[in-house]
Amino acid sequence: AAFDTLSDVTKRKSYDSTVDFNESIPKGGESEAKFYKVYGPVFERNLRFAACNDPANMASNSDANAPTNNGGKKKKRNKSVSQSSNAEQKKDKAPPSFGDDNTPIEEVNAFYEFWIHFESWRDFTLKATEQTEHDVDAAECRDEKRWMAKEIDRKARAMKRDEMSRITRLVERAMAADPRLKREKEREKAEKARVAREKKEKAEREAKIKAEAKAKAQEEAAAKQAKEKEIKAKEKAEREKEKKALRKAKQQLRKSVMSSYQSNAAELNDMWDNIEDMNDDIELLCA
Asked: pLDDT tens for residues 104-145?
């Protein structure tokens, strides 16, 4: 029975999934000084069940590299097998390292991205069989065997969900305590504050320039208005001055003509028949 279990890949996976494995994870809230020593070994331990370490893949790789018995010639690979192999290449890729306090943040993010989408090959069929106490091989009929298989599968899937929840808790607690992520968060916060500050300062500068331009425009408009008012006032004063001078000249003309008329009335009779005609001509001249 032991040989059958170890020689069968599926049974071997189910056996290896439960034997000699510490499922404990840190409680969370660890100090920065203890973080790497506490979480590093736990992640390393759980890599045992990563898809890249799947015993089935390792077995298929071993078969692919095994020597042939056909004169050293390799058999042609089936196309579907080749495509399946290509699909497994990503799983075969080595997982990102946990790193240390000096690991670049890009590598730290890649590490957590791997564990957030962690794919586990762990199989709980054997453990579920033990807990349900169902022996499929001892079933009395096909229906009972089918029922037992369903019960075992249901229990195994529930245990697999619990397993993935355990991994999720591990990742969440590690991310909450990771000093590298804390520093990056502070850096992003400071960068965000810097961008906001520069944006505010730029807005203030633009507002100041706009206010100064507006004040200058208003000042220039006021100066222009004052200048125009001053010019109009001067023009009005000049007109008043000219009117006053004209009135004075008219008065002088009237007085001069009247004086001449009174002094030389006989000589001016040929020009005007009477004083009223003379006044009319003078007013017409002064108009």
From this structure: 999 999 999 999 999 999 988 888 888 888 888 787 888 888
Residues pairing with 252 in the sheet: none
- Residue 188 has, within 13 A of its CA and on its CB side, a CA count of 7
d(CA 162, CA 125): 14
Please name the amino acid found at residue 28: G
pTM above 0.70, yes or no: no
Work out the percent of the chain whose per-residue pLDDT is above 70: 79
* Residue carrying the six token digits 């898809």: 51
Extract the runs of DSSP E, i.e. beta strands, from 50-178: none
Residue 226 has pLDDT above 90, yes or no: yes
168-209 residue pLDDT tens = 999 999 999 999 999 999 999 999 999 999 999 999 999 999
Phi first, then psi: what are they for 120, rounded to 5°?
-110, 140
How far, in Å, CA of 120 to CA of 21, rounded? 14
Cα 65 to its chain centre, rounded Å, is 48
Report CA 264 to chain centroid distance, whole Å: 108
Structure tokens at 18: 């439960």
30-58 per-position pLDDT tens digit: 999 999 999 999 999 999 999 888 877 66
Name the β-bridge partners of 50.
120
Cα angle vertex 56, ends 55, 58, to 5°?
Answer: 60
> What residues contact residue 169 under an 8 Å CB cut-off, 6+ apart?
25
Q: What dihedral angle (degrees, nearest 10) is formed by the CA atoms of 253, 255, 257, 259? A: -150
Strand partners of residue 120: 50
> What does the alpha-carbon distance between residue 89 and residue 47 come to, in Å, rounded to a whole number?
17
Q: Find how far residue 180's CA is from the centre of its chain.
A: 21
DSSP per residue over 214-226, as a string? Answer: HHHHHHHHHHHHH
Q: What is the CA radius of gyration of the chain?
A: 54
